[in-house]
Design a protein that fits this description.
Layout lengths: L7 E7 L2 H10 L3 H23 L4 E7 L2 E6 L6 H15 L3 E6 L2 H13 L5 E3 L2
Parallel strand pairs: 4-5
Antiparallel strand pairs: 1-3, 1-4, 2-3
Helix pairs in contact: 1-2, 2-3
C-alpha cells in the first residue's frame, strides 16, 4: 500500500478519441474504429505492465483512453508521465493530455487546462 503523504495524482485523457471513433463510424470505417479501439486496449495493457514494475505508483483507473494514477513524486518524476504519453502516441497514434495535482480535483482541473492550451501536454505541479 502506498503512503498517502506527498502523493500526486496524474489524470490522462486521450485527445479527440471519442470524436475520432464517432467520425470513423459515421464514415462506415468500422474496421478502422475497431483497430483504434484495439490499439488503445493494447497500449493500456503495456502501461499496466510498465506501471506494475514502478515503485510508488498506484493505478486508480485504466480503461478506454483514460488513466488515473496516484504516485509518489519522490520515487517517480515527470519522466514517468512523459513515458506514458510517448507510449500511447507511438503505439496508437493518439496523443494524451495530462493534469497533475495534489488532489483529484486539482488533477482534473489541470487536465482541462492541458486540453485548453492545445492538448498533447502535461499541466500541473512539478
Amino acid at each position: 500500500m502506498l503512503i498517502e503523504d506527498n502523493m500526486l495524482y496524474a489524470f490522462f485523457d486521450g485527445d479527440n478519441i471519442g470524436n475520432t471513433i464517432e467520425m470513423l463510424l459515421l464514415e462506415d470505417k468500422v474496421k478502422d474504429a475497431v483497430s483504434l479501439s484495439e490499439s488503445l486496449s493494447n497500449a493500456n495493457e503495456v502501461v499496466r505492465t510498465i506501471l506494475a514494475t514502478k515503485t510508488g505508483v498506484e493505478i486508480i483507473i485504466l480503461g478506454g483512453d483514460d488513466l488515473l494514477i496516484k504516485y509518489d513524486p519522490q520515487k517517480q518524476d515527470r519522466t514517468l508521465l512523459e513515458e506514458i504519453r510517448n507510449l500511447y502516441k507511438s503505439s496508437t497514434g493518439v496523443s494524451l493530455s495530462c493534469g497533475v495535482g495534489e488532489s483529484l480535483s486539482e488533477s482534473i482541473q489541470n487536465l482541462h487546462l492541458a486540453k485548453l492550451y492545445g492538448k498533447d501536454q502535461i499541466k500541473g505541479v512539478r
